[in-house]
């Protein structure tokens, strides 16, 4: 049976907590309000971008209109084949039984960016449910039992636990999660307790503290430098010129609008990639090395509108979180995965991207909306490695997993950028699916991917 998760309190309410933002389900099309603090370090009053962006032409564009806010604190680790690690798994053994009304368990990890609990047993009667919340109940997620869980509990079966599956709850922002068991009908005779019903948490995914994330980034940087000795450099090519997406709201409104269709992927509670809406229907695209199976999608949180509210600032918009659902197509050689999400209507308002079916040419200007290091959305457009000061296609026939399978460029990326769209400045359509660092960085040619998935769009 499919899990049932719903926001039951704190709609349009955010947790102000260093590290991320609260989940809030918003159903209207209005612009979100700033809420929360991101992991971007010290807030700064960034210089405002120019009123107009660099002219949208294919080459030789000036950089005068590009945002000049200080780059956010994103690690410059190479975006190698793999997900960006942002947390760790902790083994626990916590049981919530029917001994008392509103039984609770609290999971506290000082300094963690988020806490995400996993249930290996959910044996509850119909109408009973569990909530996972922050201590202030401003972010609350509900988990209902499945009929098979109830039967298993009454029969003393541990089929779900023994299968090694279980269920993840949606993450809670901050370093503390409170799990509460709610009963629909009082049980003064203790029959439910005698039947062996209850809820058990067997593990918790918690986000790194600032110090742990710094150590992880340093480790990845050492790996990057090791690779550079063999001809692969870091994914930040020269100075890091990626900027908060909102910096382009006036400088390049089209790029800013397109960035709204790009989502942060929290996979299995501890790893990150980027994904994006493809077309008007329920379709998302990311890398194969980020997601392979529907089981992967099932345990992936998809965060839309996780962006800074001010250029160079710390306050971020409240993200809308939905679960991944089903993988429709995937391939290693072209490193793509096409998948769907649950509660699709909740994310339709963020728009979508379209594919440029023709092969790009050398010198074509591009930009990359992304979540480097899992941070709020950024756009890489400026480049001190390109003569015009704007990211451009360096080689339209670059080797990836296959010969001539990729497009190369010097746009700045980092761990977590995998799966980002590489977009033409001329057409605002996707020309490649980013997947490799190395300066030049590269993405799979989207015309090749399109040939594999067009019947599913």
TrEMBL record:
Gene3D superfamilies: Trypsin-like serine proteases (2.40.10.10). Residues 210-236 are annotated as: Disordered. Keywords: Signal. Residues 1-24 form the signal peptide. The keyword Signal applies. It comes from the Bacteria. SUPFAM superfamilies: Trypsin-like serine proteases (SSF50494). PANTHER family: LYSYL ENDOPEPTIDASE (PTHR36234). This is Trypsin-like peptidase.
